Amino acid sequence: MRDKIKTIAAELLIRHGYRGLRFGDIAVRLGTTRANIHYHFGTKQKLVEEVVEDYLRVTLNRFRAIWLDDQAALDDKIRGTMEFNRERYRKFNRRGSGARPWSLIARMRLERDLLTEQTNAGLRDFGRELDAMTEAAVELAKARGELVPEAPVRDIARQIAGIANTSGSFTMDTGSFEQLENFYLGFSRLITHAYGRKAEPAPVRRRSQLSRAG
Length: 214
Known about the structure:
With 214 residues, the chain is mainly alpha-helical.
């Protein structure tokens, strides 16, 4: 029952925020009583604390699989993050377009003043770990020769993490996932154009060499 309560609570939190979350709505969805919700979690703050903790853990595990994959190219990691965002977006925007909220992280950041210190600490830790993962991925890309040696690792990583961190708000502002997709892919192309390792040019043959070859 606890897991079922948290699943419904996560959905309602994303849709309606902390202020709009009511034990009565969860009880109706599960066909139980408000007293039963209180029995398992006590207070709304405690329920939200556990829901956000679970959500952050799942999200970080997914990001670790993407960004710490030592076999994937940097462009693939950016696209993998974009597709992860798309999965969650479509859960709440089923027709592929719309401005409904879909990120619990983005939603909770708007209501920090209502959250416990533990929950706020979890949100801060999430941001720091995402920064560290993207920086490690960019550093690896440079070490493997995907990027030129002078590529500014920290600056690139900060921009990637910034896109991922604000993706929920971005789609709310633009009203579609397409604009977020263009942002991800455009930034990936920009990195490649500015800092991608260029192919070595073919050696120039002198005129005397061309004459001998003829």
